[in-house]
Each structure stands twice: as C-alpha cells, then as structure tokens.
C-alpha cells in the first residue's frame, strides 16, 4: 500500500477522535460553560448535522480544485474548528467550532476514498479505502479513550488542542506524500449530480443509512444498557467501547479484503449476521461476558460493511464519483442520527434499555433486503444489455450502464 494512504489514515484518525471524544467529555464541558448535559449534547448533534450538510456542500465547492489541494484545505478547516473549540470563551463559540470542524468530515472521507482507490490497482481498491478508514476505527480504540482521559484529568481544552495538532500532522503528511491528482478532464458538477439518477447509487446510500444505523441504535444507549441491564460499573463503559473499537478495526480490514474479491456476498454476510447479532443482544445484554463479546461483534460486523458500501458507490458513480462518495459519508451520520432517535423513542415508550437492539436488527435486515434488491436489479440490467447486444443492430442499441 502506498505511503500516501498513511497520511490519509492520520487525517482520518484525527477526525474520528474529534467526532467521538466529545461524548466522554460532556460533563466537563457542561460544567465549565454552566449549561445542562442535554444542552452540551448539542455539540454531538451539531457535529452530525454539519457532516450531513457539509459533505455535499464542501465537495461541490471543491469541484474545480485538484483533489490533493482540496484535502489540504479540508484539513485546514478541521484544524481551525478544533482550535476554536479549544479556546472557546463561551458555549456558543465552541458549538461553532464543532460545526466548522464537521464541515471537513464528509468531504475528507468522500474525496479521500476516491484518492485512495486511484492510488492502487482496481482489484485492491476496497482494501485501500479500508486502509484509510483504519484511522477512523483506531481512533475509537486509542484516540477517544486517551482523549477522554486527558480531558478528564488535564482539561478538555487540551484534548481539542491535541486533536488540532493531529490535523497539522495529517496536513503535512498529505502535502508530502499524496501525489498531485488533477480532476479528470471534462467532469463538471452536472456530471457529479447525474450520479444520483442512478438507482444503484441511491440503493447503496440507503444501505449505508440502514446498515450503520443498526449499529448506532444499540451503541448510542450502550452506557445505560450495560450499567442497568448487564450490571457493569459506570467505569467499565470505557473499556467496553474499546472492545467495540477493536471490533471496528478488525471488521474494517476484513470487509476491505473480501469486498475486493466478492463485494455483494460480503454485504449479504455482514448485514445478515449484523441483524442476527443485534437481535441476540436483547438476550446477551443480561450477561456480562456475553454482552462484551456481542459488543465486539457489532463493531466488527457493522464496520465490515463500510469498505464494500463505499466501493459500491464509487463503482456505480464511475466517471464522476466524488460527490456521491462524500454524500455516502453523510449517509453514515444520517443513519446514526435516525437510529439514535428511534432508539430513544422505544425507550421512552417503556420497552426498556434493550429495545433499541430490536430497532437496530430491523434496520440491518432492511439494509440486507436492499442489497438483495440491488443485486437482482443489476442482474436484470446485465441480462437486458446482453439481449440488446445479441438481437439489436449496433446503431439502434441504447447504452446500459452498470
């Protein structure tokens, strides 16, 4: 794998750390600014919405900018947002800092996925995308717990200053290691937008929303579920999240490896197994050992879908994949927000802290159904194309894009 992927992974590590570390530092931030925990939670919501909106916005703004330069500009935005959070004199200023940093998130992973795929041979593209996303998964194992620890003992402002430093490191790596990659000739914004007319692109994005939404339906409420149902102490939640992160790392690498060999079968297996494991979590959540194992499996199976889904979007939006790739990153965050809301609804309805696991299982099963529909549609299009090629004169054929 090219060294340029390391630079992309470092940037992804910083982005992953800043996205999730705030969850462990909400009490400290709320106390410093004199706001309630729910109000401080706007720092999480604001970031997620910034990713959803920023992914297409920043990608569109960057349509006339070479990809390497755009990645550097995005890392600059990320650094600025985290520095603003670190020195924020008021809560509103920190919220602005979070939103500024989030605007870089979707476009960085979207454009980064395209760059990573172009750095390697076609049969290694999913693996290259997975290598970049390794930075995001490792952030959940190292960056988030370490950042939380530093924030709790030294101060949360130091955590965000360190994250800004990671951004500087990623920026330097991109400047030094990523080769100049000018945009393909003739590709304009209208070509990027045309990808959304492709049903396969939309199906892949819907799979992203439902599949990863299934993961976050359960993980969003992991703390109350594990302390009230499994009987873990409050302090145990940190290492349970580390287990989840380790599962993410393993699943991401496995998903990348097998997606290059058999992309759709990889999605069938990972989404089907994820639906089953989430349903079983309603039972295993009552036992400490079984719950810990299940959490790691959810991380692994959930992130095993990321490289194949991202590659699926790139493949189907061939020729002008950048905007579609970035929007698919926003789809992950849309799934997170949707599933967290649905999980909260079933808990509020009195179904208990394990009820979000059923929500997650239904969402993952829905993603599996969409995968089957997508493959069937592709086979029908291929058969139609073959029939045209064999029975219609060349000048009368309608091109069929797969």
From TrEMBL:
Localization annotation: Cell membrane
Keyword Cell membrane: yes
Entry keyword set: Cell membrane, Membrane, Transmembrane, Transmembrane helix
Matches recorded under PROSITE patterns: MFS
Keyword Secreted: no
Bilayer topology annotation: Multi-pass membrane protein
Transmembrane segments: 42-61, 73-96, 102-121, 128-150, 156-178, 199-224, 236-254, 266-283, 289-309, 330-352, 358-377
Domain Major facilitator superfamily (MFS) profile: 4-382
Superkingdom of origin: Bacteria
InterPro entries: MFS, MFS_dom, MFS_Efflux_Transporters, MFS_trans_sf
Chief location category: membrane
Short name of any one Pfam family annotated for the protein: MFS_1
PANTHER family per the UniProt record, alphabetical: CHLORAMPHENICOL EFFLUX PUMP RV0191, PURINE EFFLUX PUMP PBUE
Designated name of the protein: MFS transporter
